[in-house]
Specification:
Number of strands: 5
Strand order of the largest sheet: 3-2-1-4-5
CATH class: Alpha Beta
Number of helices: 7
Helix content: 40-55%
Number of domains: 1
Largest sheet: 5 strands, mixed
Strand content: 5-15%
Distance between the termini: 55 Å
Mean pLDDT: 92
Order of helices and strands: HEEHEHHEEHHH
Length: 215
């Protein structure tokens, strides 16, 4: 009953804005030392029945994976945007996050009337190929809005799977385990092995032996 009540609360949060089509937007990967930042935009049907959807950080990996499959099956549309480590170094992580969000929204089929953006900032600028929807920043939105929570799960699972793939390409760093975040083991691996192609050079200040800084 508690899970059902939470679902109804999060669904009601989205419906209060009065738009027939809403997309929740969230990102994963702002803090890691390596890998991309990934954003997702998700449009859910009015009565999706996605009981159990919540902030991805509060869910176990198996639960996220199961919900990812359910969201993929039920959602009206899903868009994913990725900005790699080189772009992050060039334009900084905040601007790269906004760019990933724009890419995600542009991947949506149809045009949502409103974007609910997790956090305290809306996406600046404009979209080239479509009107800019109404935007609303929602602090801690991944725990309040059903569509933002769904986007947080899609972004997190997508990024985690990318990092698992990178672990095979760049062994020794433990990407499959820590997903690029600045754990003690990850920092020690950078010191011992040097950084690799997917490390964010601008995030490695204070960590020695940066072997690919000039590439």
């Amino acid at each position: 009953m508690e899970r059902l009540e939470r679902y109804e609360q999060m669904r009601a949060f989205d419906s209060q804005f009065g738009f027939p089509v809403i997309a929740g937007v969230d990102e994963a990967g702002r803090g890691p030392l390596a890998g991309p930042v990934v954003a997702a935009a998700v449009i859910l049907p009015p009565h999706s029945g996605l009981v159990g959807v919540d902030d991805s950080k509060k869910l176990t990996e198996p639960k996220r994976d199961a919900l990812f499959e359910e969201i993929s099956r039920i959602a009206i549309s899903i868009g994913v945007g990725v900005c790699d480590e080189k772009t992050i170094d060039e334009i900084n992580i905040l601007q790269a996050t906004f760019l990933a969000m724009k890419k995600a929204v542009c991947e949506l089929k149809g045009e949502p009337g409103c974007l609910l953006i997790d956090g305290n900032m809306i996406i600046p600028g404009h979209f080239i190929d479509r009107p800019f929807p109404v935007q609303k920043a929602v602090e801690k939105g991944d725990g309040r809005s059903l569509s933002i929570a769904a986007a947080s799960i899609v972004a997190k699972v997508t990024r985690d799977r990318l990092m698992v793939g990178f672990d095979e390409v760049y062994p020794g760093y433990g990407f499959a385990k820590h997903k690029g975040y600045p754990t003690k083991a990850h920092k020690q691996a950078v010191i011992e092995l040097g950084d690799c192609e997917i490390h964010r050079k601008s995030f490695l200040k204070g960590i020695s032996r940066q072997t690919t800084a000039g590439r």
